[in-house]
Amino acid sequence: MAVTDTADDFDPENEAVLQATELTKQFGDFVALDDVDLDVRDGEFRSVIGPNGAGKTTLFNCLTGALKPTSGTVRFRGEDVTRLPPNERVRRGMGRSFQISTVFGGLSVRENVRLAAQSVAEGKGQIPIHRKLFSPTDRFESVEARTDEVLAEIGLEERSDDYARALAHGDRRRLEIGLVLATDPELVLLDEPTAGMGSEETQRTISLVEEVLADQTMLLIEHDIDLVMNVSDTITVLNRGQVLATGTPERIAENDDVQQAYLGGVRE
Ligand code: ADP
Ligand code: MG
Q1: Which of 20, 95, 242, 254 is the most buried (most CB within 10 A)?
Q2: Ligand that comes closest to the CA of residue 237
Q3: If phi over 0 gives left and psi between -120 and 50 gives alpha, with beta otherwise, what is residue 224?
Q4: Pairing, β 242-247 against β 79-80
Q5: Sign (positive or negative) of CA dihedral 123, 128, 133, 136
Q6: Contact 146, 179 (CB under 8 A)
Q7: Sheet of strand 16-27: strand arrangement
Q8: Which of 30, 61, 67, 262 to mutate to test the pocket of ligand 1 (most atoms within 8 A of CB)?
Q9: Beta-strand pair 45-49/94-96
Q10: Do 51 and 262 meet the contact criterion of CB atoms below 8 Å apart?
Q11: What is the pLDDT of residues 234-245, one digit of tens each?
């Protein structure tokens, strides 16, 4: 039985920022995502957890546009974005973690952040009116100011003139998160930001999530249970491509099905 705390808390005034409806993704005969419904509301910090192979990255890819779902719908602020390419979704305010390859190693940390800030400043005319429009005269200053702000937020001010390729893995992930923030997103989507990090780097990234991203509307996919329990308003548990439970951290922690499928199992 799925836990449905969010239904009790439902506030009709607070529309879903992101809404996935009956999302299914098949790879050949294999059903990686099976009829997934997910609503992320304004200001909500939602985490998605689940065992390896549960379909978390497939879900992330369908939401961000890297994969086309076999069936189902993805809406952002009520608008159907299911068939839109990833960059269009970013322009509309769906900030996602960029692939490593979009960090330009031959450019400085600052130049990387500035490019990301600029990429949305130029497209602002085509995104919802409540988001701030830049006029041509203040665009440059705004981009510079946003760049400085982001460098401070991600704690890479000291490294801002270094080549991005000179960064250690953990700093590189922080830069990737910075590139997301630079696009001034309404929703931030991150897939396992601590993956592949040593314990010190993991700790720095956890602090970054807790300090910088906690106030964002977030969809975080993460295997670090302690982080997820600490920072989430709501947790969705995926198992074998299906939503096993959705609820507050407290409810998820005491859910028997979740215990069996995940928490009680072998941790990564
Ligand atoms: P998670 O991120 O939860 O570990 P994934 O979404 O990466 O899980 O994978 C879910 C399942 O779908 C796994 O069994 C994986 O092998 C399979 N899968 C993912 N991507 C593909 C693909 N491109 N082709 C075939 N199978 C895939
Ligand atoms: Mg994954």
Answers
A1: 95
A2: 1
A3: beta
A4: unpaired
A5: positive
A6: no
A7: 30-41, 16-27, 71-76, 79-80
A8: 30
A9: unpaired
A10: yes
A11: 999 999 999 999
User: Could you tell me the domains of the chain?
Assistant: 15-93+185-268 (3.40.50.300), 106-184 (no CATH)
Return the best residue to mutate from 57, 61, 237 for the ligand 1 pocket (most ligand atoms within 8 A of CB).
57
> How close is the Cα of 66 to the center of ligand 1, in Å?
13
Express each pLDDT in 62-81 by its tens digit.
Answer: 999 999 999 999 999 999 99
The beta-carbon contacts of 251-256 under 8 Å, at least 24 apart in sequence, are: 251/3, 251/5, 252/3, 253/229, 255/3
| Residue 153 scores a pLDDT above 70 | yes
Ligand 1 atom having least distance to the Cα of 238: 3
- Of 96, 146, 89, residue with least CA distance to 121: 146
Closest-CA residue, ligand 1 atom 22, reads 27
> What is the number of the ligand 1 atom nearest to the C-alpha of 50?
3
Contacts of 264 (CB under 8 A, 6+ apart): none
161 pLDDT above the threshold of 60: yes
Nearest-10 crossing angle of helices 169-182, 109-121: 20
Using the mean position of ligand 1's atoms as its centre, give its distance from the Cα of residue 49 in Å: 14
